[in-house]
Each structure stands twice: as structure tokens, then as C-alpha cells.
Amino acid sequence: MSTRPSQPFWIAILAFGMLSSIALADPAEDMALGEEAFNKEDVTAAIAYFTKAAEANYAPAQVRLGELLDSSEYNKEAAEWYRKAAEQGNAAGEYALGHLYATGEGVEKNEEKAVYWFKRAAAKNYLFAVETLAQAYRKGELGLPIDPDQAKPYEDNAKILEALAKRMEAKKAAEMTKKDTGK
What we know:
By secondary structure, the protein is mainly α. It has a domain at 57-181: Serine Threonine Protein Phosphatase 5, Tetratricopeptide repeat, CATH 1.25.40.10. The chain has nine helices and no strands. It has helices at 7-23, 27-39, 43-55, 59-71, 75-87, 91-103, 111-123, 127-139, 148-181. The termini are far apart.
């Protein structure tokens, strides 16, 4: 009589090991796996990973899940995820929630709340929020008065943030070229 375990036993052990590693993945890992699945156009898997990370209270995943829902016109659900991220101080979540309040998608239109969330995101140097507030003060939008003096600091900050973003993109491109060429 053999004391060696049967092949199905080993398959079960390997499967359990793989499942437990998935179950033990941290939210950042789930987020990365979600992005990988999304890039491979496996939206179902991406949403599953983003949802798992979002339910673990991982703000970047909450925003990403909100973006997917928002782009599919599930605006109420998107607003819920954006709110969870925004309440954790995530600038992208704050901006996205502000945008929904500005447009009235998924939430009742409320320009005061939109400005509140845009200002919170702008205080964290979130470029889209900074640009939105600059335009709002320049054109008198979102219930704000036309006020070039209020617009100017936002416009100046937007220029700085855009320049920094371009530098970061150029640095990233140079690193990718260096990696690809081995130099």
C-alpha cells in the first residue's frame, strides 16, 4: 500500500494555495491586478478586483471603481464610491464627487457642494480641480462671481502643476527608453 498522496490531493493543495494567496492579497495588490485585467480588456475581472479593494476601504480603488461606473452611466453608484474616497481625503475622489454635484449626475445638482469638493481637491494640488476653480472664477460659473483676482492664484498654480506633470512624464519616458534599450 502506497503512502504517497494521490494526484487529486496535490491539485487540491495547489488550488487552495492559489486561492488563499488571492484571498490574502492586500488592496494595493488587488488594485494592480484590476489595472492589469482592465488593460487586457477583461472588465469583469477588473471590476471584481477593484470592488474587492474598494470594499477594503482602499481609496484609489474606490475612485477607479467610481470611474468605471460613472463612464457606464451608473452615476448613483459612482457617487457612493467617490464619496467614500473623498471622505478619506483622496483628491481624485473629491474632484470626481465635486464634478457630479456640478452636473447633477447621480446626486442632486448642488454648486455649493461642488465648489466645496473642488476646493478640497485643489488644496491638495489636484490639477483638474485647480483648473476647474480657475475657470469658474474667470467665467462666473458654479455660482461663483466673476473674479479675476480669485482666478489668478488658481491659474498660476495650474501652470506650475502642468509643468511638473510634463517633467514627470518626460522623466518616465526617459526611464522607459533606458529600460527598453538597456542603457
